[in-house]
Amino acid sequence: MAEYRVIGLSPDVIAELVAEVGPLWHEQHLVRLAARPRRRAVGAGAKHKFVFIDRLPATLVSLRHGTTHDVPACWFGVDRSTVTRAIGEVRPPLVQRGCTVAPGIRLGSLAEVIEHLGADGRTGIIDGTEIRVRRPATGRKDRDKFVSGKTKQNAVKSMVLTGAEGRVLFCSPVRPGSCADITQARQLGPVQLLVGGPFMEILADVGYQGMGAQTDAW
């Protein structure tokens, strides 16, 4: 897991994430434990076998490569559902920490990313990315919404905004795979943030055709 090609981060950066995100995750974990009725005191009972130092790289691998949760589950010797739950718990404090793009600059929202790109007229790149998921159970409401019209597979989709050098600045929450790229972008609000704002160049494929008429940035 320390291999750079697997996680894409140096050991020093991973150590910083552990030091900054670990306390955030632990605090939220205690809140979750205290929020439900319990017969035992918080902290009692069996200890985690899948500890935070394992949950963090599993989450980073999932975000970087889009693998199914079965892959890190095999690596760490736990059940797939454990990895799914762990990733869902680690992602919020990662978002809360923000994305560091320069000394003293952290971007924690789409509005901050747009402001950062527009400060010096930087170029941004926007696109949608899909991750294949298991087919929803029979009888589940809106089951067909997860079928992607592009890949013809069950998937979830995120909108990603990067700088000109390809560094990820924003990754949206996932939506069912049937959601079109342009629809997801309109719901997330980048157009509203760009209208009347500083000039910048946003590169996008034909999936976002038509949005250029709403703002000069496309």
Quick overview of this protein structure:
With 218 residues, this protein is an alpha+beta fold.
Explain how this protein is built.
The chain is of the alpha+beta class and 218 residues long. The chain is built from eight helices and seven strands. The protein has helices at residues 4-7, 11-34, 52-65, 70-76, 80-97, 110-119, 181-188, 190-194, and strands at residues 99-102, 105-107, 123-132, 155-163, 168-171, 175-176, 201-203. Strands 3, 4, 5, 6 and 7 form a five-stranded mixed beta sheet that branches. A two-stranded antiparallel ribbon has the order 1-2. The radius of gyration is 19 Å and the shape is globular. It starts with a helix and ends in a 15-residue tail after the last strand.
SSE order, one letter for each helix or strand: HHHHHEEHEEEEHHE
Uncertain stretches: none
Return the average pLDDT rounded to an integer: 82
Total domain modules: 2
Rg, rounded, reads 19 Å
Total strands: the figure is: 7
List the total number of helices. Answer: 8
Content of β-strand: 15-25%
Task: Output the structural class.
Answer: alpha+beta
Q: Please summarize the sheet with the most strands.
A: 5 strands, mixed
**Separation of the first and last Cα atoms:** 39 Å
